[in-house]
Write a structure and sequence with these properties.
Structural class: alpha/beta
Number of helices: 9
Strand order of the largest sheet: 1-2-3
Low-confidence stretches: none
Shape: globular
Largest sheet: 3 strands, parallel
Distance between the termini: 31 Å
Number of strands: 12
Oligomer: single chain
Radius of gyration: 19 Å
Mean pLDDT: 93
CATH topology: Rossmann fold
Length: about 270
């Protein structure tokens, strides 16, 4: 049997907060329990929001917290040729098309399952080219994806009803999270994806995209609870919520930060 591999994949769009610490705890705990390797992947696919200073800070914070990966894979901003090469197979099958719709236009069309924005297929049959200035979408035919979440049990999602045809490259030329993460998890050998429940609804479409791209067997997904700042709002990097750097500056110790993340995430602290 091949070795199991998981990953910690922060986006350098802000400073690490306790929610990221909770995810790191879950990733490294899983790796220790299952003999898996942890790969660090910098998800800097969004050129407009990512900053070098945030990446430097998150690396410093990870080192201070004691989360040491087994290896590091190329950052997403370096992976454009690989994403395009895989997508070309879908293009040849007529599964990709250009889209001129703005986010505002998509929002005005209403929501799908789970209340998220759903693309209504406005440009699906317009024959628009795959060029800069247009979004690129992959067709999601009707159908349910079933999978077993390692912590939450059986799940069923219909990507077409949830979000419609999936945007894989935006109008600014950025590869989207959905496509970049899916292709990286496949090509970088990730067998187990450990993340928060805010991304649970993305799982069905990522399994679908991976299968269309050629992945023979999907990854196993494990979704942990989030640290919330209110019953309806999770912690946010952009809001500077409970930042690790702020806690360090206030005199918190490494063990204190980890214990606080565990407490607020509802997880038991390690014993012994």
């Amino acid at each position: 049997m091949s070795a199991r591999v998981t990953r910690f994949a922060p986006a350098p769009t802000g400073y690490l907060h306790l929610g990221h610490v909770l995810n790191a705890i879950c990733v490294w705990r899983f790796a220790r329990s299952h003999g898996a390797r942890v790969r660090l992947r910098i998800e800097d696919h969004d050129a407009q929001r990512c900053r070098p200073e945030y990446e430097r800070a998150l690396r410093e914070d990870l080192d201070w917290l004691g989360f040491v990966p087994d290896d590091e894979v190329p950052r997403q901003s370096e992976r454009g040729p690989a994403y395009r090469e895989v997508l070309e197979g879908l293009v040849q099958r007529g599964l990709v098309y250009g889209c001129a719709c703005s986010r505002q236009e998509v929002a005005s069309a209403g929501t799908g399952d789970d209340g998220e924005l759903r693309y209504p297929g406005t440009c699906r049959d317009r024959g628009l080219p795959l060029e800069s200035g247009l979004g690129w979408r992959v067709r999601m035919t009707p159908g349910v994806e079933t999978f077993i979440d390692g912590w939450r049990g059986p799940q069923a999602q219909d990507p077409g009803a949830q979000c419609g045809d999936v945007l894989v490259r935006d109008r600014l030329g950025n590869w989207t999270y959905q496509w970049a993460a899916t292709i990286d998890d496949w090509l970088q050998g990730v067998t187990d994806v450990i993340r928060g429940t805010d991304l649970l609804s993305s799982t069905g479409r990522q399994i679908r995209l991976a299968r269309l791209a050629g992945r023979p067997e999907p990854a196993t997904f494990w979704h942990h609870a989030l640290i919330m700042k209110s019953p309806a709002q999770k912690l946010s990097k952009s809001d500077g919520d409970t930042g690790v750097r702020d806690l360090r500056a206030a005199g918190w110790t490494r063990n204190g930060v980890i214990a606080e993340a565990l407490r607020r995430g509802g997880l038991a602290a390690p014993t012994g």
